[in-house]
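Morning F.,

Quick status update on the modeling queue. The single chain you submitted on Monday has been processed. Sequence for confirmation:
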Amino acid sequence: ALDCRGFLREKRVQRWIAHRCPGRFMSSDPGKPESGSVISLAERRPMKHACILHASLKAGNGGGFEFEPGVERSTVAKLTRHMLSEDELAALPSCPKVLLRAHFQEKRIPEVFGFLRGTIFFTPAMRAYLEELEPGVHSFFPIDLHSTMKIDGRTEHGEHYLLLHPPVVDCLVISETDFWKGYGIEGWIQGEDGQGGGGLSPPENQKCTLRREDVAGRHLWLTKVGSSYTEYTCSDRFWDGVRDKLMIWSPHTRCNL
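Structure tokens below.
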């Protein structure tokens, strides 16, 4: 079995340092840096625009997955919906084996794969890239990835990570955004009776506006569209670094700030 104790030790050390030396790491809230933190990425390079991310056919079908040894279905369901508490996460086996039923178009493991409305898997390289951009902001759960069929000539793929719930940011300028049911506040109200917003307009290159002050310094987050609807969103800098990678995401709508 894959030994993920190094990753778990790293997280414990980070938590200890953050407690004893709170200025050592950047705050998890980019808008409120702690005393002594490094110059934020937002100050070094302001975001020019953001991208709403939708599914990419290039990566193929991520298929289903299951934990081995078995984890209760109710626990897996909560995991895919980002509903597990810290205690429930801690109760999961350390770096469990996850069996993937995958059909990837290019016969290799994408850098990001899974389900846009559920579980997202990261390779170690992609996790390291996101951590470099946003140190300490995101939470990951280490797994030992296996597949039911050979991918790139093997069924054992080593350590990968589940991306746990990214920050949800209420940053959408409703009056300056296209929705499924129309433009602006009227279109938002028409969608799901104003409760869920009805989602952003599906055609590419429709207008979308986010509040700059709410997303400054961020690189990957969930934009709140309605009471129960969110969209994966990234900064231009994040996308510049991954545009040539094989992944489930593709930029669907460019958002003004």
